[in-house]
Amino acid sequence: MKELARPRRLAPGARVAVVAPSGPVPEERLQAGLDVLRGWDLDPVAAPHVLDRHGEFAYLAGSDADRAADLQNAWCDPTVDAVLCARGGYGAQRMIDLLDWDAMRAAGPKVFLGFSDITSLHEAFATRLGLATLYGPMAAGIDFIKNTRAQEHLKATLFAPETVRTIASGGTALVPGRARGITLGGCPALLATDLGTPHARPSAAGGLLCLEDVGEEAYRLDRYLTQLLRAGWLEGVRGILLGSWERCGDYAAVRPMLADRLGALGVPVVEEFGFGHCAGALTIPFGVAAELDADTATLTLDEPALR
């Protein structure tokens, strides 16, 4: 696994586009998120279809074609310095193959931010564009709007990434040790579903794999991890960071399943690393070289997440 190209950091006055590749976005939360961005001295613009609702499927933010057009147009707009997802939910997989990846590659690198269902886009940006991305709070999310820790860590990552080269989580070692590799990951539900698709990478070999999910019972998480294991996707992984498991049932039941499925890989594993669907979620860059120290629950990046 190779380190990916890092986009440029943001500066005051930078123009950022907010898109909705997946689920529908509440207008009041979008407006609150745009206000936060303006408070950071950024120039945010909402994509034309960001508040759309699909006419038949209430879980989608508008049609697949419109969601794809918003993302592609924002990415290819030379005046836009970053593309931020408004929320996750479901739907990125439905529009991902409608994107013109050649045109997006030609547009050059810029910041891309999102998490949860956006996992599929992180993988595609890595394999199709060779681009490092940010797995962190989204522009219409409660954490982004109201949580000081989440806001401060994301803002530092965007504007002064050298100040957050070491990410300290307060987590604990599920399997002790140190490991070096390239960061990647997201929700195991999406990583397992991506297997066999055109934008899926062949394996996580050489990677520091970041995993978290929401609303999945322990047996479902077991199923996703087992699928990744059976497919050989986890062979050669160097280390694992486990984030939040919100609404996944009692963590006392989830924890032994994670230890059972991942412990046999023989690599360091740190739990409760503080990213994903939890309050105060940290922003984790994907596609960068780093060292994981499970004993101190720290991730130290070789270089800042953004140039």
Layout of secondary structure:
Elements: E1 15-19, H1 27-39, E2 43-46, H2 64-76, E3 82-85, H3 92-95, H4 101-106, E4 111-114, H5 119-129, E5 133-135, H6 142-146, H7 148-159, E6 166-168, E7 172-175, E8 178-186, H8 188-194, E9 207-214, H9 218-230, E10 239-246, H10 251-263, E11 269-271, E12 284-286, E13 289-293, E14 298-301
Parallel strand pairs: 1-2, 1-3, 3-4, 4-5, 8-9, 9-10, 10-11
Antiparallel strand pairs: 5-12, 6-14, 7-11, 8-13, 13-14
Distance between the termini: 20 Å
* Largest sheet, spatial ordering of strands: 6-14-13-8-9-10-11-7
Uncertain segments are none
Classify the secondary structure makeup into a structural class: alpha/beta
Beta-strand portion reads: 15-25%
Q: Helicity, in percent?
A: 25-40%
How many separate helices?
10
Rg estimate, integer Å: 18 Å
Keywords:
6-stranded mixed beta sheet; 307 residues; alpha/beta
Textual characterization of the structure:
With 307 residues, the chain is an alpha/beta fold. The chain has helices spanning 27-39, 64-76, 92-95, 101-106, 119-129, 142-146, 148-159, 188-194, 218-230, 251-263; strands spanning 15-19, 43-46, 82-85, 111-114, 133-135, 166-168, 172-175, 178-186, 207-214, 239-246, 269-271, 284-286, 289-293, 298-301. The strands form 2 sheets. An 8-stranded mixed β-sheet has the order 6-14-13-8-9-10-11-7. Helix 9 (218-230) runs parallel beside helix 10. The longest helix is centred in the N-terminal third of the chain and has 13 residues, at 27-39. The protein is globular and about 45 Å long. The two termini are 20 Å apart. The model has no long low-confidence stretch (mean pLDDT 97).
